[in-house]
Design goal:
The complex is a heterodimer of chains A (303) and B (250). Chain A is mainly α. Chain A contains twelve helices and five strands. In chain B, a hairpin with a 2-residue loop joins β5 and β6. The N and C termini of chain B lie far apart (102 Å).
Amino acid sequence: MQIYLPIAEMSIPVETIFLLGGFVGFISGVFGVGGGFLTTPLLIFMGIPSAVAVGTQGSQLIASGVSGVMGYWRRGHVDFMIGTVMLVGGIFGSIIGIIFFQFIKYIGQMDLIISLLYIVLLGSIGVMMLFEGVFTMFRKKTMRSEFNRLKSPSLISRLPYKMRFPRSKLYISVLVPGGIGFVSGFLVSTMGVGGGFLLVPAMIYILGMPPLLVAGTSLFQIIFTSAFATIMHATVSNSVDILLAVFLISGGVIGAQVGVLASKKVTGARARVILALLVLGVCSQLAIQLFLHPSDLFVMVIK
Amino acid sequence: MNIFKVLVACLIIFVPFNASAKTDSFAVSIASDHIDVTVGFNGSSIELFGDRRDKNAVVAIVVEGPKKNVTIWQKARVMGTWVNRHYAKFKRMPTYYNYAISEENIDKSLLKAMMENAIGHDALFDRVNSSKNKKRADIKIFQDALLKKNYDLGVFFEKPVEIKFINNNFFRASFDVPPSAPTGEYKIHSFLIKNGKVIEHITDGLKVEQVGLNAFIYKSAQNYGFIYALVCIFIALFSGWLVSSLRVKP
């Protein structure tokens, strides 16, 4: 069934969006990731304008963030204080991201820069995850010592505006969680990804937060940063398609349920290898488009 | 006395014009003056009916969509990657443009009339203000690319639409409107051409617009961006909450 998207102003088979949402929901259910890194490029492959894909993706991040954070919240695994400081950084990051987004749109290089950002991000994360997963799979003994948090580098401990975070038992400059939040906000508003796979390691290794609190806190922060980015995209560039969001989310809801059931059958290291291959697959698809001679050398932009 | 002279002068000037308009040598009508873009919109068509008295005169019809400024980028290799490098800007290009003509053999005089009245795709670039500082040959590449892009989108047709004559005088034409066609005000220009001269020109308007739910969403997003965003966020929050509460049950 074809459906006409009111903001993207194009007609698209509703089953495809539903399946895409379901697939990403399934992935997020199995691997516990937001899946934004898959949705935005896949929407763009389907012909949805990049601006609408990025703008709309925020809604899905909110939905998957809320569904994830509830569980952590019930168990008390959310540090609201650090989350709020990160959120303040996230809002600044979103604002800068929106300005950057408008700028690359203005100079006509949006597709190139978004692709490049994706290739760099997905490529580096995919490779790291693949190595780590393969390494763990072949060495049955898990290298526990490697996962202990690093001591905060001296530069970080010298930063001003220190604050006590009792829940995480940290005494650290607010600039550190604020900075991490800033990066996340920038990613949400320019690429439509929550950046959980970047935030989680940063919170463990740079902030030195207890790993138990990390997932819940990063989700808490992503929900509000995405909500802010959604408001900005809707008011500044008018690129949030509510109909697209509804179909993506409803597909995602079902996919996530199936994914959670399936996750019981996929073990940690193997799951990470599969996810890494998936991430690298999307990355190479984007890279091919950028590096191979394009079949059509021309691009039309209507203003 | 003066007033009388003016009145006589007016009569002399205007009577012939009125008389020629009343000859009804050419008439065109569109079946519907609006196309509704609904949630399930999957394309439509613009149907025209017309009548010409002189069977030797050529009928030409142009349907053009709202005009926008268009930039065509040409990709080039920069450090191994293909990036948008060169561009040409076309001001006020129709976003939908198709034409129909009743004559297959286009001679010089007919072509001249077509160019003068913006009938046909080549005529588009004649009047359109394309960016300066580019040689004719260079600009041609971008013009061709613009046409090809629009052919691919289905908003320009490579061949003119056929005008079907039901008898010597009465004709009809049908212009497909694909789902990719932009919304807005469309103009329909109908020409009657004889000996390379346009002898009749009729202009009609048509509206392609989103209706129902789509129109509501579109207008809300345009006019109440903030509230619109809040609704999006609320839907997302609610469905996220729904998922988590479903998950807890087992």
